[in-house]
Amino acid sequence: MRMMAKRIVVDPVTRIEGHLRIEADVQNGQIVDAFSAGTMVRGIEIILKGRDPRDAWAFTERVCGVCTTVHALASVRTVENALGILIPANAELVRNLMFCAHYLQDHVVHFYILHALDWVDVVDSLKADPAEASRIARSLSDWPRNSTNYFKTVQNRIKTFVERGQLGIFANAYWGHPAYNLPPEVNLIGVAHYLEALEWQKEIVKVHAVFGGKNPHPHYLVGGAPCAVDPENAMALNAERLALVGKLIDDALQFVEQVYIPDLLAVASFYKDWAAIGGGLRNYLAYGDLPTQGYNDPLSFKFPRGAVLDRNLNEVHELSGSDPDQVREFVSHSWYNYSSGDDQSLHPWEGETHLNYTGPQPPYENLNVEGKYSWLKTPRWKGYPMEVGPLARLVVAYAAGQQEVREAVDGALSKLGVPLTALFSTLGRTAARGLETRLIAHWMKEFYDTLIKNIKNGDTRMFNPEKWDPDTWPQEARGVGLSEAPRGALAHWIIIKDGKIDNYQLVVPTTWNGSPRDARGQMSAYEASLLGTPVADPEKPLEILRTVHSFDPCIACAVHLYDPEGKQLHQVKFY
Amino acid sequence: MGKKPLTIWEQAQAQGYSRRDFLRYCAYLSASLGLGASGTAPLARALENKPRPPILWFHFQECTCCSESFIKSSHPIVADIVLDKISLEYSEVLQAAAGVQSEEALHQAMEKYHGEYIMTVEGSVPTKDGGIYCTIAGRTALDIVKEAAQGAKAVIAWGSCASNGCVQSAAPNPTSATPIHKILRNVVNVPGCPPIADVMSGVIVHLLAFERLPQLDSQGRPKAFYSTRVHDSCYRRPYYDAGLFVESFDDDNAKKGYCLYKMGCRGPTTYNSCGIIRWNERVSYPIQSGTPCIGCSESGYFDNDPLYNRLPSFPGFGIQTTAETIGTYLAAAAGGGIAIHAILTNIRKRRIIKAELEKSLNDKDIEDANDERGCE
């Protein structure tokens, strides 16, 4: 059977962060086997050794600029967890606001800039009747830019591109592919909002500039947030700055409600067949996030913590980052060795990294997928492969009975007229991202109101200085910081000795989703979800992009960590 | 093809921008490029008549923060300039095509626009072990850089990764992450993690308007944006001069906006425009938000740690010394080239010296690449 299949390669997978390669076997128009490989490595984990733990946020933030902030947040939590530092309520709120701002920007950019072109045919939009596009747009939402003239202008803009033959970023794509289903008018609306989203996304991140000085890569602080508050001082975080944040949130809410969600539902209604494709794994994991009573009280999180196995929404399993039997990593199909044997797995606190590149020498045509084939390690939870990300967050929250999430999910499903099982699909993943974006925009407003109330009541504390000085630290400490990045469950682990980092490990969302097989041959989420995906034209595998993009891959995150020299961490000398 | 490509001004018109908008944009650019008011007219003339230049944007060892910054260019028309005034022929982040089709687009563009395209690079290139630590479509980053450089009219290294190696080149630089200027000659370095969006678009516009590189300093950085220390343009500078410092985050002095020097601020050793242009449509920059500059545009900044330790590394530099003293040392360093600069600014840091040595490529690689590109 395998011999009859045709091996197709997508490398580079574009419109993602980083360097991802997919090899897939197609037979009778369907994918029968798939392999996901990360092809770039930097070694940031090893670089962290011997550094000041308070600096780790700055190093790890550079793991990814698309997921900027998420590693910084996980890192400060990890160090605070190790040292027993509690941060003031306002600092938690500021972190939540930065978290929400990042989700809003990142999810909108993903939907329009990275994912939409898998569903929206740019060239086909030239056939659209702008008046009809305007009528449809008005029927979908109150967004002000919806006139016939507006859509005509957008159409002319694309026309110029096409006629002059300088298509730029739209060149040589799969336009006209039979898997594109939208009417020309909806394509035109999609293109118009692609361009609007590009302009809009730079607004919401100003929240990062206010609290952290810049975006990408705003500054974080172990023990709190660096922005001192004084409502009446021009040199501090004052009333003017806070008003700006309030306005940015209101504008974001409007964009999400009037553009993103209506577009998502409109596009989804033409691709309902994709609610039965790309489901992949049956297990979902979320560390949860957005504390309302402090990070140490997971029950107060807006996104609950837990694991769901075999799509059983009646049971949520408890999660722990410090339990050595829960999160463990394999290297059976990754370019590394373990001293205890490549079939073994290790908890991140004991993480080992010995390089063993056994791939073909470049330039190469195909990877040896029977052996090792990726720079990503393979994490498992109690031995199970788990999907992480927006869908996992909603599934866990739904199973945990989070009321707001239940209402959002049920509402969208009934609007589309599809059953709950439609969630477990490529379309479900893409829809889940939109649904949580809307929730987050509303939650952001709540966090903002609480922050204002606290400041009004005279509480301006942003930082806990008690354990800033390394002299106050124990000789040895270990910590774990859990978070939810837009792409899914994110955790950092640290061991601090004599005031310095002795070991630092990251297990990130795309490592969960995009990793190669484990020792038992179990697939991770990308590979599993590609099985059964139809491929109309193996020369133009648009369908592979749809499913892989539904995860929003971030490969820089996934392969930040390893030491290609294969040295054991404790053997490395800096001085 | 056939028809003549649209000029930038024609493009702007097609999108409904008025002449007034256009000129305002030119004035803004002229100011940010350091050309002053007299620069506006030539800039406008150039943008009216120039066709969109093709740009090939490569990603190697990086985190994509440069691309994320680039799409946050602040002047309203800038996002348009960078998306349809230039013609982005290859960009793994933005392009619609993938796999075979994206590589096809790349090779077609390299052929069609040979000698004309601008090559921009985000990320460092790992040179250890034959470059196996970064491959795209089965080829190493090193191969791709050398090939693409042959037909490039100009090479821009975006961000600290491509300009100085950034975090992955910090000791012990496990993959021999190498900045582009150590592989190719005549590279414009636009450091920063990431560079400020308006600096990026400013550099591009300068290239397309005047068809030549902007004036560069000894480290290959455009002088317009990298000739001033963050310290010199800092609005908190009077507090430094007056000896008024934040002693602990969130203390009373922090609320008053005193100087962050004692919290580790790298402003005195960092050449960048953060204090002038600021970030995200001038909303803020790190110091304004109460957090010290970490010097992210300087070579080896991650080995000049711990980040919260106040700068102690300069001979004779203490709190009693003025910033001008530091400037003298730095000027000497800049004249002496990157390695000396890095060593001097990190005089007590042996590991950066080691890292710098490790970063050096073997000469043959450099010669090969530059011969192919026709560099002397």
Which features would summarize this protein structure in a list?
heterodimer; A: 575 residues; alpha+beta; three-stranded antiparallel β-sheet; 16 helices; 38% helix; globular; disordered C terminus; B: 376 residues; alpha/beta; five-stranded parallel β-sheet; two-stranded antiparallel ribbon; 9 strands
Structure in words:
The complex is a heterodimer of chains A (575) and B (376). With 575 residues, chain A is an alpha+beta fold. Helix content of chain A is 38%, strand content 12%. Chain A has 16 helices and 13 strands. In chain A, the strands form five sheets. In chain A, strands 1-2-3 form a three-stranded antiparallel beta sheet. In chain A, strands 8-6-10 form a three-stranded antiparallel beta sheet, with no helix packed on it. A three-stranded antiparallel beta sheet of chain A has the order 11-12-13. In chain A, β11 (476-485) and β12 form a beta hairpin. In chain A, α11 (403-416) runs antiparallel to α12. The longest helix of chain A has 32 residues, at 239-270. The relative contact order of chain A is 0.20. Mean pLDDT of chain A is 93; it is low at 560-575. Mean pLDDT of chain B is 80; it is low at 313-369 and 372-376. In chain B, β5 (135-136) and β6 (139-140) form a beta hairpin. Chain B is globular, with a radius of gyration of 21 Å. Helices cover 39% and strands 10% of the residues of chain B. Chain B has 376 residues and is an alpha/beta fold. Chain B has 17 helices and nine strands. Chain B has a five-stranded parallel beta sheet with strand order 2-1-3-7-9, sandwiched between helices. In chain B, strands 4-8 form a two-stranded antiparallel ribbon. At the A-B interface, α1, α6, α7 and α8 of A face α4, α5, β2, α6 and β5 of B.
The global form of chain A is globular
Q: For the terminal residues of chain A, how far apart are their CA atoms?
A: 57 Å
Tell me the strand order in the biggest sheet of chain A: 1-2-3
Oligomer, anyone?
heterodimer
Give the overall shape of chain B, derived from the CA principal axes: globular
Q: What is the terminal-to-terminal distance of chain B? A: 34 Å
User: What fraction of the residues of chain B are assigned to beta strands by DSSP?
Assistant: 5-15%
Total count of helical runs of at least 4 residues of chain B = 17
Catalogue the unreliable spans of chain B. Answer: 313-369, 372-376
What can be said about the biggest beta sheet of chain A?
3 strands, antiparallel
In total, the number of strands of chain B is: 9
In which order are the strands of the major sheet of chain B placed?
2-1-3-7-9
Percent in helix of chain B: 25-40%
Order of helices and strands of chain A: EEEHHHHHHHHHEEEEEEEHHHEEEHHHH
Q: Which structural class do you get from the secondary structure elements of chain A? A: alpha+beta
**Helicity of chain A, in percent?**
25-40%
The succession of helices and strands of chain B, N to C, reads: HHHEHHEHEEEEHEHEEHHHHHHHHH
Mean pLDDT of chain B: 80
- The overall pLDDT average of chain A reads 93
Strand content of chain A: 5-15%
Unreliable stretches of chain A? 560-575
